[in-house]
Amino acid sequence: MAALDILVLNEATPQIIVPQSGDTYNAPRAFAIAAGTVTTDVNALNITQTWNAGGVTFTGLEVNVTNTASAAASLLMDLQVGGTSLFSVAPTGGVGGVGTMLKIGTGTTTSAGLQLGHTASGYGAIWATGITPSTVNWALQTNGNSTYISGISAVFIGPGGTGYLEVISTALRSAYNVTLGATGGYEFGGLFLLKTVTAGGTTGAQTISKPTGTVNFAAAATSLVVTNTLVTANSIIQCTVGTNDATMKSVQAVAAAGSFTIHANAAATAETRVNFLVTN
Prior knowledge:
By secondary structure, the protein is mainly β. It contains no helices and 23 strands.
């Protein structure tokens, strides 16, 4: 297969070349197709091909650029309308859409899709297609610190959309009898909190940065400090005595920044367990 030089007709020695299958053409200059104004469906470029070999990996269109040096805004491809870029591909592989928006799918009832972009505040976001994106109707939004999920009436989390965890305006609930919120009060049928259970024989002050756990008062002890990074001065600490001690029957908890102190009603006769729950 020959590598042919393409010569334009107004060159000093014009040539007419009949392309052959598999030929490679060495163009002495960049091609520019000025197709002019058309009033019928005339393609500026129309490429047709039939692939018919199951063992061959085909490529319909290939652009191979050696990027020795280029400006940061360089593009492998840039599709424009009226001078405005609507779709582009950067040398790094990044894909750009309409301005700051990339649309996938038509957004009709039979062909849904996504729109990816950012809100006016610069946060990355995903919208459903078929709507006009705004700062309040996104489905997913994220910035450097937080990620937000939004739904019109509810957000469901679970495999296959089964709603193992459902978030609505007034409650957090799941399919497994867990409801937290104004509409249903609270029921615990499958709610798990991280905890640390202090082993028997280990008494005194502990560091437990979890919402719930246990500590052990030594015999004759009347107070105990728990260091917990979840706790603030406004935290609510609920404590219960977990051992039937002869003298220590109840406790009170006082919250501070980063810790809380458990005070016993009386000195423990023997090692006594206390359970705690932190609410913020």
